[in-house]
Specification:
The protein is of the alpha+beta class. The chain has one domain. About 30% of the residues lie in helices and about 15% in strands. The strands form three sheets. The chain has a five-stranded antiparallel β-sheet with strand order 3-7-1-8-9, covered by helices on one side. A hairpin with a 6-residue loop joins strand 8 and strand 9. Helix 1 runs antiparallel to helix 2 and helix 5 crosses helix 7.
């Protein structure tokens, strides 16, 4: 005897694709937010940051699932089923935002939009480490990231217009995290003992660059696919910082944290 289960939605997809899509839009699966462990720093000179943000525009990152009722499903955690932004995505985008802060745009304009001959600032290498293909003098970055889970699902339609007729005829449906949804960017600055001095940077200067880059990415650039269209932009209502041996601090802006970071990490030069 054998048993076989067929998802009714997928079964309907084979016979009536449009109706299956309409049913999915009426009852999208939100999943369950993942587990968030304690963020308390364990060692001296470590710093934990929790940046709470409210989406002002849709957030989207395409899922890699091979078969779905929609053509553009949002990226979901394979275990919890909830929409999420991976830790590696945060790391890559924040590295890019730090590079923009340290002259990347001017370099691209001068080099014909080519990244060759670009050298990361010492603070960027200290925070994020070397690129994967840099085998010599490889260094691990001092930052550790956590995923961001979302608890809402929505839909957006993009209708590309013909440049001649100025009209669209092929609307494209996207599953998104809608505006108004709240999320958290959680990261830990956890250098090994003496790492800042070995990297030739001030820990305070490196973390200050990070705070500026986080603000740029979240508020100015956006951290979603299609961010050039304004998707993934958010506001920041509060930021929580925690270090070993001191009381946690909660402020309204990342800029307000700079004095606290200087006090906790010190401002001595390497």
């Amino acid at each position: 005897m054998s048993f076989e289960y067929t998802d009714p939605l997928l079964e309907k997809l084979l016979t009536d694709k449009e109706q299956a899509r309409r049913d999915y839009e009426l009852n999208p699966q939100k999943g369950r937010a993942g587990y968030e462990p304690d963020t308390a720093p364990l060692l001296r000179d470590w710093l934990a940051l929790v940046v709470t943000f409210n989406l002002q525009a849709p957030w989207f990152s395409r899922d890699d699932i091979p078969f779905h009722v929609l053509d553009n499903p949002v990226h979901r955690d394979h275990v919890f089923g909830a929409p999420f932004m991976s830790a590696s995505s945060w790391k890559g985008l924040l590295r890019w935002a730090c590079r923009m802060r340290t002259g990347l745009l001017a370099h691209l304009e001068a080099s014909g939009n080519e990244l060759r001959d670009w050298r990361d600032d010492a603070r960027v290498v200290h925070l994020f480490g070397n690129e994967r293909d840099e085998a010599t003098d490889f260094r691990r970055g001092a930052l550790t990231f956590r995923p961001t889970w979302f608890d809402k699902i929505g839909f957006e339609v993009i209708n590309p217009h013909d440049r001649t007729k100025k009209a669209g005829k092929n609307p494209i449906l996207y599953e998104v995290v809608p505006p108004g949804t709240q999320g958290k960017l959680c990261l830990l600055y956890a250098p090994s003992p003496g790492q800042a001095a070995r990297d030739g940077v001030s820990a305070t200067a490196a973390v200050t660059l990070l705070l500026e880059a986080v603000d740029d990415l979240v508020v100015k650039y956006g951290f979603s696919a299609k961010r050039t269209s304004g998707w993934g932009v958010a506001s920041i209502p509060k930021v929580r910082a925690e270090a070993r041996g001191v009381s946690p601090v909660e402020v309204k802006t990342l800029h307000d944290l700079q004095a606290t970071v200087t006090k906790w990490l010190g401002d001595s030069k390497p």
